[in-house]
Please model this.
Amino acid sequence: MNNRLKILRAERGWSQQDLAERLEVSRQSVNAIETGRYDPSLPLAFRIADVFGMTIEDIFLRGE
Amino acid sequence: MNNRLKILRAERGWSQQDLAERLEVSRQSVNAIETGRYDPSLPLAFRIADVFGMTIEDIFLRGE
DNA sequence: CCTTTATGTCAATGTCACTTGACTTTTTCA
DNA sequence: TGAAAAAGTCAAGTGACATTGACATAAAGG
Model:
């Protein structure tokens, strides 16, 4: 499942570590989700949406 | 994470088995998600939203 | 340069999502 | 009432999500 995390994070000038702290997950988890190694859990997807002030649908793409 | 699955399913007159087939998961998974024993994965949450023609945010509630 | 910061990735571990199969209880309806 | 369908739940297994700690490489800035 593709996502726009890397772009959104870069737009805000945040490092993976910065985002990880805002989400209360490890830096490795952020990296794994960004690089598409796995998808976040639903609760984490909601926290991600909240951090960026967007909906889950805006960040995570159905295709592939 | 609370959800409106049971209500939405009942509105359509579907059994848990019916919904499970549409989602391509087991009946036990549908039951577990409905009764709040665990949350669906993000890909499954998208399929659930698709089946009901709604967004994830419309079906799964942030609170609790 | 050279040190710091950022990123990518690995291994090992633990927990959660999801499975099949079985069983009990509740609901429906002929 | 009584059989069938639906719902709830348990156990055991598998794979995915997420962790810490470590290491390699790349990028940035002094």
